[in-house]
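Sequence in, structure out. Go.
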Amino acid sequence: MPMKKWSNKRGDGYVFPCVMILVLCMVLSVFIFFYSTASWIRITKENTKTVMDSYIIKNSIEIYNSIKQGNDYTEALDANVYIDDLCDFCTLVNKGNYLYAYDSKGKVQYQMTKPYFTFQVDNTLKIRVHYTLYVPIWFNGKAVGAASIPVTIDSAFSEKF
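Output:
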């Protein structure tokens, strides 16, 4: 008696295409997540840089006098003023050690640690801002984790003669 091959039941031919469609949808959702995360990183970097440059311009006279005297100006720059300006410019909510961005439905789009300054002086004042951006990973309407992205932005002020 010959061995029977797979029986040709109704619907057997649709299993493989359905599995492939599911795999394709999963891969597509990963690409969309990475693209949206890259977009949030770019937007926060641009906004942070804009606020930082504005902050430096507002304090330019004090910074310039400090550079002329050879100081690094670390004591006088107030990070809280910068954070308040950043919250106003980007419509972020300041809660505890994090700044939150919400969408129109009240869902967290991303959160970031409060930015902190580091200073370097070589005939110029270089201000470096560090923060970590957390973009939530959503599944079935619930946040199951967050992608953590460290971000560093530089801005410099120097004498021009």
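Check: The longest helix spans residues 15-58. Residues 67 and 125 are 7 Å apart (CA to CA).
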